[in-house]
Design a protein that fits this description.
Length: 385
């Protein structure tokens, strides 16, 4: 029987009781002490990254993570390494299914939501419809790029004047042959979001033969009225899949856990396209993090608060920007992006890459508080103002 991942990091006395050696007990004590939340927090990159090191504001990661509970689960998961991850996966699946109010078979766990994005491209190809993927431009490119490699054409639809998905134009691009629409909400790199109501009308308007994939990697950071998860739709819409990830608010990007919430009608076909197995450490961390509500609340408050500080500064400086709903901000630097990137790098800060059609715009991830301080201090010079 599988040991509970939350209790395998036993205290030395328990180890001694099991008749293990003194050396085992000492190792156990070291692991136990290292796993104390205070020690783990001290080791957090957000807390420990010195003012001198390179500040990485380029990949929309969350340096507040992992949560204290997840750090403990990660250490404890060492004992589970010899085992395949099936039981740990079942635990996480049951937890997510209960949270979403769906059957466990409707939750598909992936090695990051990136795997699930790729599985959706495979689903579209398997439909054999011959139609194209419809996606907004710019958006997160993992799915469109992979779809392109499989020979699935991409019909790009320009975002609207507010850099949001233009749902009316996307609907107009959907034909009876379209196998898949990708909606990234909030969107990467623009950070903008469409409302739950607008999205539901869109989803219900497309033919049942067309799957709408809603990627909610950043939904936990959204605070605009009307913006909310579309996950509940899987209960009565047969052609929508919603993706979530443990890489963003949970700060577990390196451990590669994401999940899909699928309608019962699609679940089996979708799950069958999985190519990898998530690992016990990532799964154990995800189980613990999901229940660490205090950490999630604190992290969201810190990142959303600092996102507002960046917004306010850009507004004071008169810079065009999109309305950020993720853990990053997208704005017009007013000059070549490369120049802004170089100046920021000179100040020890790495910002995001270039996006087609937005040659002067920068995407900057919200880091921990002192990193945002450093970014804001460097901003006037980097913008040449
Ligand atoms: C919108 C979006 N979806 C999905 C992903 C993939 O995340 P992961 O594979 O780490 O779950 C990312 C990563 O940055 C993203 O920005």
């Amino acid at each position: 029987m599988r040991a509970d991942p939350h209790t395998v990091c036993a205290d030395p006395a328990t180890i001694a009781l099991r008749g293990l050696t003194r050396r085992d007990a000492l190792i156990g004590a070291a692991v136990f002490l290292a796993a104390r939340p205070s020690n783990l927090l001290a080791a957090a990159p957000g807390a420990a990254a010195g003012k001198a090191g390179l500040i990485r504001l380029d990949s929309n990661e969350n340096p507040y993570g992992p949560s204290p509970a997840a750090r403990q689960a990660i250490l404890a998961s060492v004992s589970e390494a010899p085992r395949y991850a099936a039981a740990t996966m079942a635990t996480l699946t049951a937890q997510l299914a209960a949270h979403e109010g769906v059957d466990g078979s409707q939750i598909v766990i992936g090695t990051g939501s990136g795997e699930l994005l790729r599985m959706t491209a495979l689903l579209a190809i398997a439909s054999g419809s011959g139609g194209e993927l419809v996606a907004s431009k710019p958006t997160y490119e993992e799915l469109p790029v992979f779809a392109g490699k499989l020979g699935l054409g991409v019909h790009w639809v320009a975002s609207d004047a507010d850099h949001r998905h233009d749902l009316a134009a996307m609907r107009a691009a959907v034909t009876g042959l379209t196998p898949l629409v990708y909606v990234c909400n909030p969107n990467n790199p623009t950070g903008t979001a469409v409302s739950r109501d607008a999205l539901e009308s869109f989803i219900r308007s497309v033919p049942a033969s067309c799957t709408v994939l809603v990627d909610e990697a950043y939904m936990d950071f959204a605070d605009q009225p009307g913006v909310a998860t579309a996950a509940g739709l899987v209960k009565d819409v047969p052609n929508v899949i919603v993706l979530r990830t443990f890489s963003k608010i949970h700060g577990l990007a390196g451990l590669r856990i994401g999940y899909a919430i699928t309608p019962a009608a699609l679940a089996g076909r979708f799950a069958a396209l999985s190519l990898t197995w998530p690992n016990t450490t990532g799964l154990s961390a995800a189980i613990a993090s999901f229940n660490d509500h205090a950490f999630l609340r604190r992290t969201r408050a810190a990142l959303v608060g600092d996102r507002e500080r960046v917004h306010a500064t850009l507004d004071r400086m008169g810079r065009h920007r999109a309305v950020a709903q993720g853990n990053f901000v997208f704005f017009d630097t007013g000059g070549p992006l490369q120049q802004f990137q170089d100046r920021m790098l000179g100040a020890g800060i790495k910002v995001g890459r270039h996006f087609d059609g937005y040659d002067t715009w920068a995407r900057v991830t919200i880091g921990v508080h002192h990193e945002v301080d450093r970014f804001l201090a460097a901003l006037p010079r980097a913008l040449g103002s």
